Amino acid sequence: MAVPGQGSSVLLAEDDVASRMATRMYLQRLGYHVGETADGPSTLREASLGRYDIVLLDLGIPAVQGDEVLTKLRQDSAIPVIVLTGQAEESERVRILDLGADDYMVKPFSLPEMEARIRAVLRRGHLERAVDRIERPGLLIDRVSHRVEIQRRVIDLTPKEFDLFAFLASSPGKVFTRAELLEKVWGSSPEWQDPATVTEHIRRLRLKVEDNPLKPYWLQTVRGIGYRFAE
Q1: What pLDDT, in 10s, does the model give residues 162-197?
Q2: pTM for this structure?
Q3: Which CATH class is domain 9-128?
C-alpha cells in the first residue's frame, strides 16, 4: 500500500469515456498511477489483482451495476472505495455508505475536490492499519477479517457498522461528537450529511452488540456531546 498521495494507484471505474479521460489525465499529472475499467466485471477482475490502493466507482457502470460491484468488493477485500453518482438524495447516500463505501461524491464535482477526498480516504486507512486487532475481556475486533466477537459469539455487522464500532473501540473513553464521527468514519460533514446518520447507526449497533440496548455497556452516550466506547 502506498503512502497517501502521490504515487498511489487508483482504479477508475467509469463508462463515460470523456469523464474517464479527464479524470485519468488530472490524477496522472499529480503523480498517481491510474488503471481504467468501463464495466462491472472488468472492475471486479482488476480490483482482485491487488495492484490498487483505492477504487473510484461510478454507480452507473454497465453489465454489473455499481452497487453490486461495491457489495462484492466489500465481501472480498478492504480496498477503499469512493462512489461517484448523479443521485444527491440523502437516503441514497446513506444506502451506499451502508454498503461499505468510504466516501461519496455527487456529480458534477471538481477534480481538485475529488483528489482531496482520495488523499483523505487513503490517509484515514493508513492510520487505521496501525491497530488491526482490538481485544478486551469478552470482545474481539479484527480489522483484517472484519470480524467482531462478543463473548465468543460472532456479531453480524454491516461494513459501516463495523467501521463505526472499530473506530470507537480504538479510543476507549474518548468522547466523539456526531460531527467528528461523520468526518472520521464517513469522511463526511454535517454540511452535506445529516448527523442523524450517526445516531441511527449507534442505535442499530446497540441492538446487535449490547445485552440490554436500553442500558448500553459498550456504546455509551455522553448527553449533549456525543458517544464514547467503554473504558
Answers
A1: 989 999 998 889 999 999 898 888 877 777 778 888
A2: 0.60
A3: alpha beta
Tell me the domain boundaries of the chain: 9-128, 133-229
133-229 has the same fold as 9-128: no
Q: Which helix (H) or strand (E) holds 54?
A: strand 54-58
- Tell which CATH architecture fits domain 133-229: Orthogonal Bundle (1.10)
Q: How far apart are alpha carbons 3 and 155 in whole angstroms?
A: 32
Query: Phi first, then psi: what are they for 203, rounded to 5°?
Result: -60, -45
Number of C-beta neighbours around residue 167 at 10 A: 16
Residue carrying the nine cell digits 474517464: 20
DSSP letters for 68-103 = HHHHHHHHH----EEEEES---HHHHHHHHHHT-SE
Asked if residues 92 and 103 have their Cβ atoms less than 8 Å apart, the reply is no
Where residue 50 falls (left for φ over 0; alpha for ψ -120 to 50; beta otherwise) is left
